[in-house]
Amino acid sequence: MRLSGIILVVLMAIAATLSEGQQGHEWTPQGIEALRQSASSKTEFTLDHSMLVLASKLDPDNEDLRRVIAGVNGVSVHSFRFSGRATYDPEYLRSVKDEYRAAGWKQVMSNEKVEGQGVSNVWLRVENNAISNVAVLVAKSTEVDLVVVSGSIS
Hints:
This protein is an alpha+beta fold and 154 residues long. Helices cover 36% and strands 37% of the residues. It has helices at 3-18, 30-38, 49-57, 63-71, 90-102, and strands at residues 41-48, 72-81, 106-112, 118-127, 130-140, 143-153. A six-stranded antiparallel sheet has the order 1-2-6-5-4-3. It starts with a helix and ends with a strand. Mean pLDDT is 82; it is low at 14-25.
């Protein structure tokens, strides 16, 4: 892992500690809220644009990183762990999918294994012919992770 990746991980951990319990202004599907309530372990954090800019300055020679971060407003991570196999209600995952669709997001990838043993979904929100948000949901039998990136993404 490159130095910039290590630094970004450290900043994310610091941000998680500082922002624990704070709510961002982003929309979160109710299915994610339901998963949060039933999880035995939760890790959630949001990095706003200023935190991402700070991270990019720690690796001043990485023009690609700074160019990507320039258009990103924030990154939110919701990571839930469950004590036993398939202890969350699969209906919560279906409701997340339905809520993104109802909110105007376009699902661009779906990979769902038999009997709910694995789900991978990617949604895009497009505004003015540009991608404005990306959401990635990965669910396994004992964990569910949602990462949302907002901003002008090209």
